[in-house]
Amino acid sequence: MVAGLASLLGASVLAPLTAQAAVSSAESGVASLATQPSALNETALGKSGSGESALDESAIAPPVSNHLVAQAPIAQAADVQVFERPSYVNTCRNSGTSTLAVYTSTGQTTVVRQLQPYTRITLTGVLGDGVAQIREPAVGWVRSATLLSNCDAGPPPTDPVGQCYQVTQPELVVRSAPYGTILSSVLRGDRIYGTNPVQRQTTGDGRIWQRVYYRGTTTLGWVAETGTSGIGVNFVRCP
Predict the structure, then answer these.
(1) pLDDT tens-digit profile of 131-162?
(2) Is the model's pTM score more than 0.90?
(3) Is 59 left (phi over 0), alpha (psi -120 to 50) or beta?
(4) Which whole-number Å values give the CA distances from 147 to 19, 47, 78, 94, 216, in the listed order?
(5) Contact, 108 vs 141, CB < 8 A?
(6) Which 3 state secondary structure label does DSSP give 7?
(7) Could you give the count of Cα atoms lying within 13 Å of 23 in the half-sphere of its Cβ?
(8) Cα(225)–Cα(194) distance, rounded to whole angstroms?
(9) CA–CA distance from 4 to each of 10, 11, 76, 239 (Å)?
(10) Measured at the alpha carbon of residue 121, what is the angle toward residues 167 and 186, in degrees to the nearest 5?
(11) For residue 87, what are the CA distances in angstroms to 92, 152, 197?
(12) Do residues 168 and 233 make contact, with C-beta atoms less than 8 angstroms apart?
């Protein structure tokens, strides 16, 4: 129709109308865009519907402190002054009435062995403040406070098999038989126990011997009850 009018009216008349139509069309397009909802969702910009950030702050690692945590120093065992006592070299002792720990050093931090009660031990002669070095039955250091001078000491019997005696001589030799092989010795104040019934022998010199238990009630041996000709006594009944 416009083409028909153009032919009748001429291009000069229709030019303003065509331009005005183009402007109207553009304005209607802008208005249409203004009435459409925005294609940009706020959540795409990192916003939640409540207006708070959609990023979870808990997911962000806290800053690392530049200050190092101080550690408590590890306690070190103090050095112990040691010395050698020649009279103690290769002498024996008894571990005592309870389990005795053998340590690698005077610091008493590392245990190499646990000795059972009444274990015979041998000293090296090297001592320290409250400690002693041993070489048998293990090499190491032990606490000296509980050591017994009676090397063959044993636990007291719970059910004595015979009469209890207390040694009165400084040292009394224990033998395998009257005048037999020496097995050990007991010291003044040590307790020994007779057999039940009592076993006695008298040798040609008149000395009286008695068979006794000298390590609690586990080890038997013979000791001289009197001197020659039956004179004197070497032990008495326990008080």
Answers:
(1) 999 999 999 999 999 899 988 887 765 556 78
(2) no
(3) alpha
(4) 124, 82, 23, 6, 17
(5) yes
(6) helix
(7) 6
(8) 11
(9) 10, 11, 114, 154
(10) 10
(11) 11, 20, 42
(12) yes
Domains of the chain (ranges, CATH numbers): 82-143 (2.30.30), 164-237 (2.30.30)
Give rounded-to-5 percent helix, strand, coil for the chain.
20, 30, 50
For residue 125, what are its two tokens? Answer: 């002669």
141 class by beta-carbon count within 10 Å (0-12 exposed, 13-18 middle, 19+ buried):
buried
The type of residue at 7 is: S
Is 196 a residue whose pLDDT tops 80? Answer: yes
Q: 38 CB contacts (<8 Å, ≥6 apart)?
A: none
The token duo for 169 is: 């001589």
